[in-house]
Amino acid sequence: MKTQVKKEELLVLTDVIKILVDKTETNGKYAIFEENVPPLGGPPPHLHPDEEIFYVVEGEFEFILNDIQHPFRAMAGSVVHIPSNALHTFKNVGNTQGKMVVFLSPGNLLDYFRVIGRQLNGSADYPDLSIAPDFTELDVKKAFEFAPQYRVQFVLPEIMEK
């Protein structure tokens, strides 16, 4: 009988990532993780070499793919494909926690998540995903500091002075 190994879980910015299949299990071809996102949670617009496929399990998300001016909705049962190096982001626009299963190819983005994320070990480590995060408490320093090393590029809107 094979024993069930507890899957690695990380807090990455606002989201809890549960690694289901690591790229080491697939000879570096792909990785799969579950992403639990609080209301208003999600990353800033970014791009990276990994291709992503999002399957929305629960919740209501707004995605951007290449065109920041034209976001689109993805509900439970939706599949969203993000090609390699495409500008994208998502946000949980529902009032409850959202859940997605994400397929990465080749899965190198997980290495970045491990560097910038915080390992979750016990129930006291987990954030309350039923409420919007306190963005004033969000520490993005590591996310920006290590992004170039992992070929992640954030695209933030320009702030223009009048």
Question: Can you tell me about this structure?
Answer:
- With 162 residues, the chain is mainly beta.
- It is 9% helix and 36% strand.
- The protein has a domain of 78 residues: Jelly Rolls (Sandwich).
- A hairpin with a 6-residue loop joins strand 6 and strand 7.
- The chain is globular and about 35 Å long.
**Intertermini distance:** 68 Å
**Which regions have little confidence, pLDDT < 50, spanning 5+ residues?**
none
Count the E strands.
Answer: 12
Provide the CATH topology of the domain at 30-107: Jelly Rolls
What is the level 1 CATH name of the domain at 30-107?
Mainly Beta
What share of residues are in beta strands? 35-45%
Biggest sheet overview: 7 strands, antiparallel
Question: What's the overall geometry?
Answer: globular
Name the strands of the widest sheet in spatial order.
Answer: 8-5-10-3-2-1-11
